[in-house]
Amino acid sequence: MNLFSMTRRTLLAAATSTLALGSLTVPALAQTPEGVLIVGQIAEPKSLDPAAVTAVNDFRILVNLYEGLVRYKPGTLEVEPGLATAWEISEDGTEYTFTLREGVMFHDGTPFNAEAVKFNFDRMLNEDHPYHNTGPFPLAFFFSAVTETTALDDYTVKFTLNGPYAPFLSNLAYPTGLMVSPAAVEANGADFGRSPAGTGPFKFTEWRSNEAVVVEKNPDYWGDPAGTEAVVFRPITDANTRVAEMLAGGIDMMVEVPPTSLSQFTGDDFNVVEQAGPHVWFLILNAKEGPFADKKVRQAANYAINKEALVNDVLEGTAEVAAGPTPPAFAWAYNDALDPYPYDPEKAKALLAEAGAEGAELTFFVTEGGSGMLDPVAMGTAIQADLAAVGFDVTIETYEWNTFLGEVNPGLEGKADMAEMAWMTNDPDTLPYLALRSDAWPDKGGFNSGYYSNPEVDTLLEQARVATDQSERAALYKEMQEIVQDDAPWVFVANWKQNAVTSDRVENFSLEPSFLLQLADVVKN
Question: Which of 204, 238, 194, 271 is closest to 18 using CA atoms?
Fold first, then answer.
């Protein structure tokens, strides 16, 4: 690479070195290079286009290549300036005017300016934009309130909304709001996700499918330079293999350490990092067809599953039992009066009898891994046993993470009765709005893969996102949680505290409540 003496071939060799698991011997290249951070990822990224992806696994790479107009203040979910230095909001809440940072260049040498901002949002939101076909853009929902993006001058941009929209700034800080180079999109078209260009502290070097994504320090970065010469993101889908690589020195950092493996990283050679954040692990239930079309059967599933055992035995106490769809990390919006469904197999059996659903056959989609999925195969197996104990006949189908998303996100109709899922979100609006509204069914572009529909929930969510007073928003979200908890479109399982482990050669690393992986300040000795 041009920033240090190590050749790209040597770097990639180090990045793709593997542990000989059978004999537990360590290859010569398992001692990772100085100044090059090797990160063990949970899966292969789907794309490096921030507007085109939904998984935190992908976002962990993207936030090091790209930046947004605003960003999360370190250690919080509060918004602070990013590529914009300031902003003004009109009295009626329908216009946001941003002053942009001057002198910022994209990695391809083109300037960041107001026209670039307009290009990014028009590409996502306008079907007649010449590069709208480089999508699809599954989280464009985040900016559905935007009716027009206007470049007032080179460094001033205005967003006009169709009404007040409380989550707007928070959504701009989310990876969907990261700014891509218009010139790079124009040059690469639908292949932009394999040839990305942003403004971040690292720039893209190489992506070898199923081996590594390599990024290097951006020498022209407008801010403080990155602390490492390069970062290599290695997809290691098997959790046990990631753990073995970490123990052997083949990687410097791994995220989402399996709970049963945390005890292996004690001592001075490793640092375990934890951070609470807004996470919920749940089961999507197909409310459109099959047994779970009946509310009593959905409630029976919630009573049948021993969530305390899942949290304490499978997850080794690294999570808490969930109550409703909103994570408690959103303290101001969380309804702490709700209690989780208790483990009550007899109640579950009684509800199944009332519904005439004894012996109901269920197809259950389980993933091998994925963003925030914790220990999904073990979780799925335990859930299958609990459901069988009350009379369900459950067949598990297991998929690799990106394949799993390809099956679940388009909807469960005709395929499955239930599926595992986890969301890590930036605002209490995000998950219910994208996954519980009637207008968020998959055929309408949303993630309501179980086809839940309740007009009262729809109304509360619409009211909450236009409420400018936080206490008013909170009351609306709390009422929504009560209804959803009772309707049971999901089995509400767990809220997790994220973790990561680094070697003792890594300094200045911390996890963020956003679950994003900010690596610019990290130093690798």
Answer: 238
Cα angle value 501/503/508 (rounded, 5°) = 80
Q: From residue 206, how far is each of 20, 128, 192, 195, 233 by CA, in Å?
A: 25, 32, 13, 8, 11
CA angle 30, 216, 525 (to 5 degrees): 45
Alpha-carbon gap, residue 241 to 247, rounded angstroms:
10
Q: How many CA atoms lie within 13 A of 418 on its CB side?
A: 29
pLDDT, tens digit, 9 for 90 and up, residues 395-415: 999 999 999 999 999 999 999
CA atoms within 13 A on the CB side of 335: 20
Q: What angle do CA 216, 218, 223 make, to 5 degrees?
A: 135
* Single pTM value for the model: 0.80
Q: Which regions in the chain score pLDDT beneath 70?
A: 1-30
Across 400-481, the runs of DSSP E, i.e. the strands, are: 418-424
List C-alpha distances in Å: 224 to 59, 200, 425. Answer: 21, 11, 28
Return all residues near 346 (Cβ < 8 A) that are at least 6 apart. Answer: none
Task: Check the CA dihedral 215-216-220-226 and report its sign.
Answer: positive
Which among 419, 396, 424, 399 is positioned nearest to 409, based on CA atoms? 419
